[in-house]
Amino acid sequence: MSNASIRGALIAAGYEFVQFEPKIPGMWNWRPDAVAWAANSHGALVPWTVVEAQTSSDAIRPEVGLSVLARARDMLGTADHYIVMNGTDWYRADAGLQRLTAVDGPVSPPNGGDGEIVDVDLVTTMLADELWKAAARSHDKGTSEAFRSNSDVVLGLTSFRTATNSLVPVNKETLWQARRHAVVDFERRGTEAGFLTSHKTVAQAVAQLAGPKLSGRILDPFCGTGSFLWEAIDYARKRGTGLGTALGCDVDQRMVDLAGSIGAVSPVPVEIVRTDALLGEGLPLTTSIVSAPPLGLRLQEHHQLLDGTTTRDGDLVALDRIVRLLVDDGRAVLHLPAGITFRRSADRYRRFLATHLRVAAILGLPAGAVPRTGIRSVLLVIDNAEPSDTFIAQLGEDWEAQLAPGGAALEAALTQIDGSQQ
């Protein structure tokens, strides 16, 4: 039976959303043939029906597909299950997935086929698919501007048109998660976007290291698509740190638009503005800064640093600008190239930091922590407070496990920085 025939039968039964061979988290080597979504008793769309289509012969009975249906039910929590044989013969499984009964086609879902979409994986998949379609269209036209325009439209979607041409809304919290995931997924799978995203493990670790300082307003002067801001917002909500607003800045209007489309559905007020933070003009003082400044910039003009020296080293200028924006007892958690910790030209500035502020932690990371580069990097934690001991660790190939929530290196750093594990 063709996908079109299965889709037609499901739509005729009242289903709006039908997926073929969808990705199942945790089961990357197996996909069900078809999954149809329907409303649960609360009006939220959930995976409701699974269809297993089998090529039949006299030697094969439809019952051999029951184990496949059971696997789908265990992974998706579906309520209705079918096997299609001979291209036209439908069989419905009983509740225990032990027996099959011949039926004319799928039964209509009890609560209807539409509702509010709350499943993050579903929306992420749909957004990512639309981004790939936009990339393909712009590739055919030989221009990146078409993709930029189309991707803004994709990420701005708040509802989806179904096979019956109706619009189904997406839950706001779901949009908040799915827009972020779709951008990261697209960035990791191709080079069409040029999105500036950070490794999720790094972004989560940055949020935890910022910890109790995530109150009032948080700032990222070099936000890209906002990876650090979004993880910090999630952490602050979970821990109740009192975060009120978030401000992101970037010199690239493309990044401002992308981050703005995500921030528009944030659970806390977010403002994303276009500005050159290296110029150090117009940004507010704040309690908490999380950022991954651009790497290895060589500026055209010399900039004066807090220690009185001047430099064209973009890494040092970015660090200096960020330190200037911290209020008393404020904290910056930064992802920087490792060279800033040993580069000879930065000796005097490093001494300045060590004697005027609290360099709370330096966590060295191997190549791979900065996407699409081979450079080594560091997570640097600086408090605008009296100097004290610095937690120092150089992580190896297991850096992701070490920095993950509950990881040994992260927990040790948190204990020293704030006196207790978070």
UniProtKB/TrEMBL annotation:
Enzyme class comes to transferase
Catalytic reactions of this protein: a 2'-deoxyadenosine in DNA + S-adenosyl-L-methionine = an N(6)-methyl-2'-deoxyadenosine in DNA + S-adenosyl-L-homocysteine + H(+)
Q: Which Pfam families match?
A: UPF0020 (PF01170)
User: What's a BP term from Gene Ontology annotated to this protein?
Assistant: methylation
Domain Ribosomal RNA large subunit methyltransferase K/L-like methyltransferase, chain residue ranges per copy:
200-305
Question: What terms describe the molecular function in GO for this protein?
Answer: methyltransferase activity
Which InterPro entries does the protein's record reference?
A: DNA_Adenine_Mtase, RlmKL-like_Mtase, SAM-dependent_MTases_sf
EC number, as in UniProt: 2.1.1.72
At the top level, the lineage of the source is Bacteria
Q: Which UniProt keywords apply?
A: Methyltransferase, Restriction system, S-adenosyl-L-methionine, Transferase
Query: Which CDD domains has this protein been placed in?
Result: AdoMet_MTases
Name by which UniProt lists this protein? site-specific DNA-methyltransferase (adenine-specific)
Organism, scientific name: Actinomadura violacea
